[in-house]
Amino acid sequence: MTENQSSLASGPVVRSEDPAWANGRAMPDVRNNTQCTFCSKMISGGGITRLKYHLAGIPSDVEACKKVSEDVKWQMKQLLEDLKKSKQKKRRMSKQIANPYDLEEDDDHHHHDEGNNDNKRGGSKSHSSVSN
């Protein structure tokens, strides 16, 4: 085994470039378990996302870190908000891919109805103003 291989084998492998890894570490031999570098709490399951909830202090199924700085707490909240937005976007795209005509028909139908409503309102206004 080379020197590089032994150092990789002895330390946990981080599977992403997520900035949250600067505040925690993956636990060797246990998939998705992490440890907070601020309070040394072991977080079972959930991986980096659950560590973010711990550091952000957002109520979930993991206890909030009592030793994290406000700056890191804010950063983790931002990362979780970005993750939420990304998941919502993926869901919308999946729906659109699954049924691409459904959204287009709704949009066209919606615009068509708006035009008709404007004409109806405009027509009734002109009638009411004539009768006054």
Automatic annotation (TrEMBL):
Keyword Metal-binding attributed: yes
Superkingdom of source: Eukaryota
Classification via PROSITE patterns: ZF_BED
One of the Pfam families matching this protein, by short name: zf-BED
Domain BED-type span(s) in chain numbering: 15-72
InterPro entries: Znf_BED
Region span, Disordered: 1-28, 84-132
Example of a GO MF term: zinc ion binding
Keywords: Metal-binding, Zinc, Zinc-finger
Annotated Basic and acidic residues bias: 108-121
UniProt protein name: BED-type domain-containing protein
Source organism per UniProt: Lithocarpus litseifolius
